[in-house]
Specification:
Layout lengths: L2 H8 L3 H10 L25 H13 L7 H17 L1 E5 L15 E5 L13 H5 L17
Antiparallel strand pairs: 1-2
Helix pairs in contact: 1-2, 3-4
Length: about 150
């Protein structure tokens, strides 16, 4: 039975069904990717290549041994490309399509700065608090083909 069907049966919301199941230990633990994906990502950006690779990196760093070999090879290749281009992954909900996210925008690559250290991402918590602007965004330092 789906959460929706159970909710309908008992006259509650799907969220209430999930909460009860979670409280009783009946749900799977959701992975926490906040270390590599600290942003609140719009649904339309959730399948951009950079965020998918960051999820894989998070899974790998958390010891997930169920990652298929082909995905590990994709991750290794992507990490090599990012390192060779000397860039970090950034996110802006209002970023238009660009080389990092050609279909939907949102994610983009920016040249690494000294303050980035060894991080693969650049995250400014203050940017999360700003409302998305309709004004066109420009890339800091785009990398072709990334």
């Amino acid at each position: 039975m789906s959460y929706e069907q159970i909710a309908e049966m008992y006259g509650v919301t799907k969220g209430a069904v999930y909460w009860q199941l979670q409280a009783s230990g009946q749900t799977k633990k959701r992975p926490d990717h906040k270390r590599f994906i600290p942003w609140t990502v719009k649904a339309e950006h959730a399948h951009a290549r950079p965020v998918m690779m960051l999820r894989l990196l998070s899974r790998q760093e958390n010891g997930d041994e169920s990652i298929p070999d082909v995905k590990l090879r994709m991750l290794t290749k992507w990490l090599g490309e990012v390192k060779a281009a000397d860039v970090v992954v950034c996110y802006d909900r209002g970023m238009p399509p660009n080389p990092a996210s050609p279909s939907t925008g949102g994610f983009y690559y920016s040249k690494r700065r000294p303050e980035d250290g060894d991080s693969i991402i650049r995250f400014n918590p203050d940017d999360e608090k700003k409302p998305a602007s309709d004004a066109p965004k420009t890339l800091d330092s785009p990398t072709a083909g990334q």
